[in-house]
Amino acid sequence: MADYLGPAMPEPVLSSYIAGRWVEGSTGELYPDINPATGELLGHVSVAGGAEVDQAVEAAQEAFAGWRSVPAPRRGEILSRAAQLLAERKEALARLMAEEMGKVLLEARGDVQEAIDEFAYMAGEGRRMFGFTTPSEMPDKFACCVRDPVGVVGLITPWNFPAAVPSWKLGPALIAGNTVVWKPAEDTPRVSLALALILEEAGLPPGVLNVVLGTGPRAGAALVEHPGVRVIAFTGSTETGTRIAAEAARRGKRVLLEMGGKNAIAVMDDADLDLAVEGILWSAFGTTGQRCTSASRLIVHRRVLEELTERLVERAQKLRLGNPLADDTDVGPVASRRQLDRVHRYTELGLAEGARLLCGGEMYREGECARGFFYRPTLFGDVRPGMRVAREEIFGPTAVIVPCDSLEEAIRINNDSAYGLSSGIYTRDVNRAMRAARDMTSGIVYINHGTTGAEVHLPFGGTRSTGNGHREAAVQALDGFTEWKTIYVDYSGRLQRAQIDTASAPGRPGTSRDVPGYTG
Ligand code: UN1
To answer: Do 221 and 334 sit in the same domain of this protein?
Structure first.
């Protein structure tokens, strides 16, 4: 761990990292960094406030001119090196992540791998960053469009994907030539600092990426309000995202939002049930149900309802809860006491709403899990689409089964949601599959696959309250972090008036001007 944070890291109290230096929080407060599997104290965080945000924005502003002028392919080389360093340290970083937020090692490795993929992909963008050229309506005039960085961007990221999700924002922001102030989640300060230090080791000049460790209400709010920050990119709850959007609108900022989900998997009566069971377990209980893309609604055709339910319950009960660092652990803890309480409140709500608890529904405190924040994988049956457990994001190992009678009904239930991130459907009928792909109105649709597992070179994001129209990852992510600049080059050597001197268009009535080669 110390290797990661560098010899100068003032462990066990973690500080913000601004312009290449450790900066203690001026609030004078500390909060504990806790291992959710064991309850063990990993250290403390020195809480940054508005003063550190000001300092970080200033550092990013100072670094901007230099970073912007580094050719994009060179910036790409730095990202490429970062990808390489991450690959070399994948195991150690994954362990750090498992310790800090409880993701099982297999998935923590996947999280780091996604960051590796994203940096490698965005490194290539440094040699593309395509704009376009198009003919001018005037003779002897050239027209093209290029992407420009916007300036200082503010990133606010969640604890559930502490490497992958930040990389989706850092990759495009940095390759495009922006400088960054990043406020990572309170629960994952170590992984965040480790990632930032790797980028610096790869060659990022000081001040290009600044990490502010603070709370949402203080550091996050200060970042959103800061006049020097042009773009805010946020992943987190819909409630916070909506507040950020309102504040950003008042200040004329661009805001990129990636918020909640209530993702559904539909299972038709012709589905391969073996495959569906595997996909559902992985999507509902993988990452302890704490992915934005986790499946928390299962829309099941009545003809296979009984069989599928039985098989799911049997398998869910066999999932092994335990230390995320152990190879045979299937499900780790939820990330914090706060999350644990939230998940349990939804169990109580489901029971109160009249849903049938099929398995789970309680905390798990046996053996090595005694002191951690573990919750048994939970399934509810007899759920109607209108129940709150079928409508609200729980963000934990809980899925509800909603019966349906047809493909059309499954699609209708899927779409009738405040959210629209990811949907899946299991069917062997290609016609049904294609109709679902066409009519499911989420940002991502999987055929014969669960709802998780997005790849970095395809756009990621959702419809309705999941987002605000932007996409992360893939080339589309550049749209959030760049301004289009249109460049006209007039090489005629005389005044040419667009829209006025229309004689250059044969057959078009207008002012006759001396157009070489044209005698109209
Ligand atoms: C998230 O939960 O915020 O598709 C991201 C997936 C992962 C990313 C999830 N590749 O589930």
So the answer is: no
